[in-house]
Amino acid sequence: MTTSAFYPIGIPGTPWGPTEVAAWRARQDRKRSYADEVQGRIEALQAHFDVTEYGRLDYAPEHYPLYVVRSRQWDETLPTMLVTGGVHGYETSGVHGALQFLEKDAARYAGRINLLCVPCVSPWGYERIHRWNAEALDPNRNFREHSPAQESAALWGLLAPLRATAHMHIDLHETTDSDESEFRPALAARDGKPFEPGTIPDGFYLCADSAQPEPAFQQAVIAAVAKVTHIAPADPDGTIIGSPVVAHGVIEYDCRKLGLCAGITDARYRTTTEVYPDSPRATPAQCNDAQAAAIVAAIDYALGGGGRTV
Hints:
It holds the Pfam family DUF2817. The protein is of the alpha/beta class and 310 residues long. It contains 9 helices and 10 strands. It has helices at 18-26, 34-44, 92-104, 123-128, 150-159, 177-191, 215-225, 255-258, 284-303, and strands at 50-59, 62-70, 80-85, 114-118, 166-174, 205-209, 239-240, 243-244, 250-253, 269-275.
């Protein structure tokens, strides 16, 4: 069904210009602190990891340092595993699940892998609990060379040297009720298109890269997360968010064509997680646990069961 859902900015059927983007940005209030909730926890990891800035977001008068956490003893003979969170700043468990993994689980892989983790790709969006950046761009549709999105360009540059050598990349996301109430209507308004209502999956699922799906890898992650929280069932038409379900809890996207984070590298094993924090069957702690469990399962599979053995 297509509808002309009301959105308070712009003229229906007309894409936004700079005036509408400025009006939208003026409505975005700061709701939480990146420095207090994220940056401080990242800096505390310096006792065990190399923590460095890989870029800064410049949204004057605000500026945000972007942090990467790396294995202290980087060894080119070991497989490189990538973890990214907070590409969409409002997807809270992506950020805090990555931090939880670094604080509680990452030490077990010392000397076995090269770990590179970016817990919060989009701090401006994190503070405003928003999907887009300050220019009304979705970072997770803009991972490409010469990206117009600062967040995407910075991460692209960071991962460029690892594009051909990364072994695994897991990108942590959420699907929330606000996708349907705010972000999809805003997208339709921004692009001057009709709003097409969708559905919100109740549970965890994965988005594999159709160019390199690795079904057994995806199912290993699903099996691990199923011990923590429930897996999203398919809709009656056999889809999740409109995409065919190819296996239990798994859909596929062409990540590189769509400019998605998981398509930045040529890693053999790559996936995007999605949890549902608004479910009555899940808590924020469960969502964080699910993300951390997904990371552990992804690394373990890539290291051993079907992946590269070290």
